[in-house]
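seq:
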Amino acid sequence: MDKIIEAIIFAEEKHREQKRWSGEPYIIHPLHVMMLVAEEMNIHRLWHQKKFINDELYEAILISAALHDVIEDCGVKDHVIMERFGVMVCNIVNSLTRSDDIAYDMYIMNVCNGGLAPMLIKKADLFHNSVDSKTGELKKHSKNRADKYKKAMEEISREIDNIFAGRNDD
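struct:
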């Protein structure tokens, strides 16, 4: 639990000057993503008795959710994440970091190839980016963005379902 709190504080420090499109402090976004991921993991842990998500992975996923934008948006170097939070968290956060030279579809494929942890976080990230955190209503995105998010969430959800159904060896 201490590492999760450390990750939240670290993310808040790194995102401190950033704002969401709504004017909210940016840290609201990683915290919402963390909560969404925790809810989904708790459901799966109840159904599967920790078969897929043991305690170490559970903590690493929550920490990674808090940190999921710090490399891409704040310029934090991955070695800093590795030193403070370990190799597993660093690998998860790296797999969620999109560089400008990678097409979005390829990025989503890479997230899916990264295993369960990045998929759970990216799914929550896409969902939170699609919903107004104040009202809970779907945001009025451009049709292209809405379609892109919907397609990505469907692909990620399908891959997660495959893992939990035992049709994937990840």
